[in-house]
Each structure stands twice: as structure tokens, then as C-alpha cells.
Write a structure and sequence with these properties.
The complex is a heterodimer of chains A (about 100) and B (about 230). By secondary structure, chain A is mainly α. Chain A has helices at about 1-25, 35-40, 70-95. The model of chain A has no long low-confidence stretch (mean pLDDT about 90). In chain B, about 70% of the residues lie in helices and about 5% in strands. The chains are: A mainly alpha (about 100), B mainly alpha (about 230).
Chain lengths: ~100, ~230
């Protein structure tokens, strides 16, 4: 049972990594629903004036120092998948531990 | 649907932040009562999958793209409160790590995609699933319908926020946002249903909402939004 779960989780994580590494570089780069509406109805520039948080390491899912855009997206995506996995597991572990009260 | 800085007024962002933070705090409490050994790694994988799948923009009508949201997917797998927390974690990482969605609009983004998407989507799912007498057929009707609504209602909430902030009048923002997301929602429904079916085929016990049907008693009510 436990081993089966482990197997399933590795598959889930593996699929996520493959998506980030090999599919995300080829994702559509057209504006998304909100961006399109903003462009169309003339309020897009409102979102371009400033950003409060300027230290995002992977701005727009790229690494600025890697020239190849596809490679850059793949690396940013895979790093993100690992990061969110570790953060979520860490968070869930804290939640579970809190159970013993 | 990630709202950048500058679109919404600070007052509105503060209000949605309070609502979202309150919902998350209550969610943490609920999840805390429920989570066991199995759910911890499952939450990690679900969050990782949602993040990866959100990167895959697919083209929709007229030079626009859309991507998977994963709110109903997470809620159906792990329960609505865990779904809200997964969406929140993903949105925080996207905002701070990838400059996707503004930090000032974080509360609004969590509200639209977590509170409305994950909790609201789950309520629709739960209602339809119960209406069907928790049949397998009912599950596969409730799942795509709720997924579609999670995207469209999230977009509707975003349109309302734009209107309240004076960025775009409601008569323009609402049909535009709901219209384009009605198409994106079809993609959401297809991806959610496919992914959940695949998991049901291999590990039905990991889909908490589906499992409840065969759960002996009492516990079945716990995951519901009350």
C-alpha cells in the first residue's frame, strides 16, 4: 500500500516535471483572457506602471541570463515544480503535525 | 486570470486580502483536523502538477490563450479547504517567484481563483454530485460542469473587481471576461475530467470526493462545505 502510493506520487511528480520541461516552452505565448480584455478595452497600460515586488527570480517564467528562450522557460518551470512541491509538502507536514494537540 | 499590480484599487485589494486570509486561516484549521500520512505528499504532488499545468497556455479564439486553473481538480482530490490552500501556495509562488500576478493584487487573485474557484467550484460540484445520488455518472457530470463554472465565476469576480476599482465599467468588463473564460472553461473541464479519470483508474482512493461514496458512514459529511 505504502509503496504503491510512493510509486503513484513519483509518477505524478514526474509528469509535472515533464510538462514543465518539455511542454511549457511550446505553450502559447498569446495574451491570456485578462490581458486580452485589458488590451482590447484600453486599460492594459495600468498594469505596466509599477510592480511592488521586483525581486522575482524567474520573471515571466524565464531566466534573464539564458539566451535560448525555450531552455530558459524549461529550467524556470522545472525549478518552480520542485520549489512548489517542497513548499507544499513542508506546509502540509506542519499542518499534519499540528494534529497532535 | 492573474491580475497584475495597478489594475485594482488598494482598498479593494485590502478587502479581498482580508477575506482570502480569513478563508485560508479557516482552511488551515479544517485541513489540520483531516490530514494524515497520505495527504502530505499528495498535497505536494497536486500543487506541483497544478503549477506545471498552469504554464501550458493553449490558444483559444482570436489570438488569446488560456491555461488550466486546477481549483476544482485540487478540491475534488483533497477536499475544498486543501484545494484553497493549494491554490494559495501556487499563487504565492507565482507572484513572488515568477512575477505572475501582482503582490498588491495577491488577495484578489486568491479570492478569484481560491475562494471562488476552489471553494465555489467545489460547492457546485458537491451540489450536483449529491443531486445525482452520488452515482458514477453523476460524478462525471458534476466534475466538468463545476470546472467550467470555477473558471467563469473566477473571471466574473475579476470583472467585478475591475469595475469596483473603476478600471473598466462592468458592462464592458463582465461580458468580455466571462465570454473569453467561457471558452477557456471548456479546456478546464476537459483537462480536469481527464486527469481525475486517470487517477480514478489507477488509485481511486486518492480522490477524496469519489471515495466518500463507498465510505461506510459519518465521515462522508466532513469534507462538505458547511
Amino acid at each position: 500500500m505504502k509503496n504503491q502510493l510512493k510509486g503513484f506520487l513519483w509518477i505524478g511528480l514526474g509528469v509535472s516535471l515533464l510538462l514543465a520541461l518539455f511542454l511549457s516552452p511550446f505553450a502559447s505565448s498569446s495574451p491570456d483572457g485578462l490581458e486580452k480584455v485589458a488590451e482590447h478595452h484600453g486599460f492594459a497600460e495600468k498594469g505596466e506602471g509599477w510592480t511592488l515586488w521586483q525581486y522575482a527570480p524567474f520573471r515571466d517564467y524565464t531566466l534573464p541570463w539564458i539566451e535560448n528562450k525555450k531552455l530558459s522557460t524549461a529550467i524556470a518551470g522545472a525549478t518552480g515544480v520542485f520549489a512548489i512541491f517542497l513548499i507544499a509538502v513542508g506546509f502540509a507536514t506542519c499542518l499534519k503535525k499540528g494534529k497532535v494537540r | 486570470m492573474h491580475i497584475p499590480d495597478g489594475f485594482l484599487s488598494h482598498g479593494l485589494n485590502a478587502a479581498t486580502f482580508v477575506v482570502s486570509a480569513g478563508a485560508c486561516a479557516y482552511g488551515v484549521k479544517k485541513v489540520n483536523q483531516k490530514f494524515g500520512e497520505k495527504e502530505v505528499p499528495l498535497m505536494g504532488v497536486t500543487a506541483a502538477f497544478v503549477f506545471a499545468a498552469q504554464m501550458l497556455n493553449f490558444p483559444v479564439a482570436g489570438g488569446t490563450s488560456g491555461h488550466f486553473l486546477g481549483a476544482v481538480f485540487s478540491s475534488v482530490l483533497l477536499g475544498p479547504w486543501a484545494g484553497l490552500i493549494i491554490m494559495t501556495l501556487v499563487l504565492v509562488v507565482q507572484c513572488l517567484g515568477f512575477a505572475d500576478g501582482g503582490l498588491t493584487a495577491l488577495g484578489s487573485n486568491i479570492f478569484n481563483m481560491g475562494v471562488v474557484g476552489a471553494l465555489g467550484g467545489y460547492i457546485i460540484f458537491w451540489f450536483l454530485y449529491r443531486l445525482s445520488g452520488r452515482s458514477q455518472k453523476g460524478f462525471f457530470v458534476a466534475l466538468p460542469v463545476a470546472s467550467w463554472f470555477s473558471v467563469v465565476l473566477g473571471a466574473t469576480a475579476a470583472a467585478l473587481e475591475l469595475a469596483i476599482s473603476g478600471t473598466s465599467p462592468l458592462v464592458i468588463a463582465l461580458p468580455a471576461m466571462a465570454g473569453i473564460h467561457a471558452i477557456i472553461g471548456v479546456g478546464e473541464a476537459i483537462i480536469t475530467t481527464t486527469a481525475v479519470s486517470l487517477i480514478l483508474k489507477t488509485r481511486p482512493d486518492l480522490v477524496s470526493c469519489f471515495h466518500k461514496r463507498t465510505a461506510p458512514s459519518g465521515l462522508a459529511q466532513e469534507g462538505g462545505v458547511s
